[in-house]
Amino acid sequence: MNLTTRPTVFSGAQPTGQLTLGNYLGAMRTWVQMQEQYDCLFCVVDLHALTVRQEPEQLRNNIYELTALYLACGIDPERSVLFLQSHVAAHAELAWLLATFTQMGELERMTQFKDKSQQHKHNINAGLFTYPILMAADILLYQTHKVPVGEDQKQHLELARDIAIRFNGLYGPTFQVPEPLIGTDGVARVKDLQNPTKKMSKSAESDLAKVMLLDEPAVVVKKFKKAVTDTLGVIRYEESEQPGVANLLNIWCAATGQSRVEALAHFDHNQYGKLKLETAEAVNALLSPIQSRFQAFNADREMLRRVLARGAEQARQRADQVMARVVEQLGLPGRS
Description:
Radius of gyration: 21 Å
Low-confidence stretches: none
């Protein structure tokens, strides 16, 4: 049911503030490369963002800023479908239908629900609980072959696969069963600058823990200078013994395109201060053109609206085909 002969990839991000350096090096830069070999759909998943209370005007602004960041990082609406989740009503509709094929026990086992319930004890809503079903709908709606996932999303993708297999088993071939697209060795695993045993996250409490894509150069330098290392006084790549140093080396390699061997030779002086400063400078050189493009795109909100409207129309054409098949399989009357 795909409209192209290339395998389909679906991925998205929530408009809940800026993206981090980890989001870019670990995901979005790879998405840009995927446009060469996959049929890509990239979504601003605004419905997912509603599981946490949002200030309406700020949410609207975040949606446009994330769209501008997608474009600034290299997502090309001429080669990919870039759209807003809430502009394609089939996402919510399919989520309801799939909810009737999802067991309570499956949702109760989701570790992210447990984690987020601890973070948002004042607002443990049903949407937070059923979030993985909407994610399954996002993926299955486009007959997705591959889904780029990190460790924290593997469980959700497994549920999407289980739902697809269950539906297909009852009603015949309907959904493509998606496969995970795990990052290759060339994908940077960017860790928290204050706790390098954890991944860098935009939800980190300390601003020093995360580098944001739109951070000013001086702010980037400050954050790297404050990065946690150790007292060993030697620059080696030992993630278990020296996670902070290994994280800085990974980031420097990802920003410069140099190999780990080249990094160790470059930093054989064993001076942590120089490692931190040069990593900050490499990151600033990487982010500078992205930030310039972002400023231009974000200043043209009418252009962003046109991009999202066009993408939504393209997405709806695909989604309608799948929904027609699902409705038919379930025995619901067809739509004129």
